[in-house]
Write a structure and sequence with these properties.
The structure is a homodimer.
Chain A (H helix, E strand, L loop, with lengths): L7 H6 L20 H9 L2 H6 L1 H14 L5 E2 L6 H5 L5 E3 L3 E3 L7 H5 L11 H14 L5 E6 L1 H10 L7 H9 L1 H25 L3 E6 L7 H7 L1 H11 L5 E5 L6 H5 L5 E4 L5 H7 L5 E6 L8 H15 L4 E5 L9 H13 L4
Parallel strand pairs in A: 1-4, 4-5, 5-6, 6-7, 7-8, 8-9
Antiparallel strand pairs in A: 2-3
Helix pairs in contact in A: 4-7, 7-10, 8-9, 8-10, 9-10, 10-12, 14-15, 15-16
Chain lengths: 344, 344
């Protein structure tokens, strides 16, 4: 194995001392990068995801062009429903749609579960190829969607502001919901383990719609499955959990097998440290909309953010994915500001 | 003035002892009610809002049909931009759109501000007529959108998941944002005072998109204007502030001139009481998606909610507006469960 030249991310996750915080950005591969947009004009979304050479090229773009301290494989959380035999359509600029939604026991029973993770060989191939191309420059991050978030899409059939149908399904047919969540969890664990074998140095689990749940419902429908995943994968690689919107769960999750927790901007760094008893590496939490402000202002805010989190046990990142309208120079300024950080 | 036969809501807001908590539901007038849907087929949205007889009829429907302890005037938060001379279109089922968005100093300067509240006479007429028709059965609630939420629509031009453009406007042109927020605030104060004169017994300020802001940005762009409104209106009528998603602001707001704070379901009742030092009347926080569950389950959850908040200094409500797909019987069951509540 090639020795990593920049292992800041992995050291931060192990709570080892670092010279400065590592920095990467959720959704850093894609959308706002001109070279990505060129590829998008030639290949549709799932061609880009399923062709290891393309996925690798896209994954590497922000390493070279923005200077982040980690690569995250270009893929999508909805490859899991696909692997389970569910059709997923992606219309450019419109978000995903799943024509066949989960409604009944028969729908759940019809899902492919045995060896479903083997349907995602293209992800493992992309990871291996990316790992080779990175040649030890920075660590490689694998990822999956959290079971609750995947259920949201499988029941709702498309994005939603309120996830009413997904919640109605959970609240009226809780046994079915738990069956579905467990099936997703089982496949996700195998999927993440295979990602690590293929080259991922760490994995992140995105619970993008966790915040649609009340604290009690998060404990019922989200948390147990996040904990199962962290427990099962922790010996393979460090796990980062990102429960967007679920600030109320941070204390519980800080006691889990995860090595890091992603934080959105709905709480300030000091509060995040308090809620987690300063016991776990935190990642976040810059409001992506702030990347649209002038560069000196971005740099000022980054400094404030690091002042708040501290330089240790910390990974600088956004509080959610970078938006397509961010100028590349502004993304670079964000990364530079972390690298230039000096406390006073 | 007619004596109120049911003044539970007003007593709860004054922190006086009540026999049981009052109950009403955000968006209780409209959407899910068959009689409303019939009116919707005959009159377009702004005709319903701007015709006092129709607005009154719609406002009264849930009093008779669902049994809530308060009426909230049927209107829309976007009447304020309209009063300022901004066109607002409402396409049924699609949400609002504002073709001319705020971008520059010239846009802000062009807004109508002098006596703009007088352009909303139809709201005052609807309140007076409703007050008369209610004949003291229950209190009448007036309302307005919070300045930050109104700015969101005026800058973005339509609904958004992330409010990027609104935030970009605030972060890149803060002086303009504050000018706009102040103009909205000034008109909103006069508007709410006139609502009280016309018959509103209390007023609620909806900051539906407060949660898109970080704690620091909420303190910059939302909180000062909410406080101005509460300070200016408190001697006219009790003010309820509803900063959806901004749990981090609850402590500050509990020390404001407001008489009540609306809570969404992202925090449990006990946490809400702790964050507000048990010092203010709280309102909420049932997940509207739970109204889609079976009735016995709804009643069980309502009991849990009231157990959590306690029966005093509390107004039972949803954590956001009722959704169109809720069966009327389920809305009724919610209200009945509050009325039947007995602690054990």
């Amino acid at each position: 194995m090639t020795q990593l030249k920049n292992d800041l991310l992995l050291r931060a996750l192990k709570k080892e001392k670092v010279e400065r915080p590592p920095v990467w950005m959720m959704r850093q591969a894609g959308r706002y990068l001109p070279d990505y947009i060129k590829l998008r004009e030639k290949y549709d979304f799932f061609t880009r995801v399923q062709t290891p050479e393309l996925a690798t090229e896209i994954t590497l773009q922000p390493i070279d062009q923005v200077g982040v301290d980690a690569a995250i494989i270009f893929s999508d959380i909805l490859v899991i429903p696909q692997a389970m035999g569910v059709e997923v359509l992606m219309e450019e600029g419109k978000g995903p749609s799943l024509p066949k939604t989960m409604k009944s026991q028969a729908d759940i029973d019809a899902l492919v579960t045995a060896d479903a993770e083997n349907n995602l060989q293209y992800v493992y191939d992309a990871l291996s190829l990316t790992k080779k191309e990175l040649n030890g420059r920075v660590p490689l991050i694998g990822f999956a969607g959290a079971p609750w978030t995947i259920l949201c899409y499988m029941v709702e059939g498309k994005g939603s502001k309120t996830w009413d149908k997904a919640k109605q399904f959970a609240y009226t047919q809780p046994e079915l919901a738990h069956q579905l969540l467990q099936k997703i969890t089982d496949i996700t664990i195998k999927y993440l383990k295979k990602q690590v074998k293929a080259g991922a140095d760490t994995v992140q689990v995105f619970d993008s719609w966790a915040g649609s749940l009340s604290p009690a419902d998060f404990k019922t429908y989200a948390q147990p499955y996040l904990l199962q995943i962290a427990d099962a994968v922790k010996d393979d690689a460090p796990v980062i959990l990102f429960p967007k919107g679920s600030w109320y769960a941070l204390n519980d999750l800080s006691k889990s097998s995860a090595s890091g927790i992603g934080i959105d901007w709905s709480l300030n760094p000091q509060t995040a440290r308090e809620l987690t008893n300063n016991s776990i590496t935190l990642q976040g939490n810059f409001d992506p909309a702030k990347l649209l402000a002038p560069i000196p202002q971005i740099k000022h805010w980054v400094k404030e953010m690091i002042d708040g989190f501290g330089t240790q046990n910390y990974i600088a990142n956004l509080g959610h994915g970078i938006t397509p309208n961010v100028p590349v120079d502004h993304a670079k300024a964000f990364v530079e500001a972390v690298k230039e950080y000096r406390s006073e």
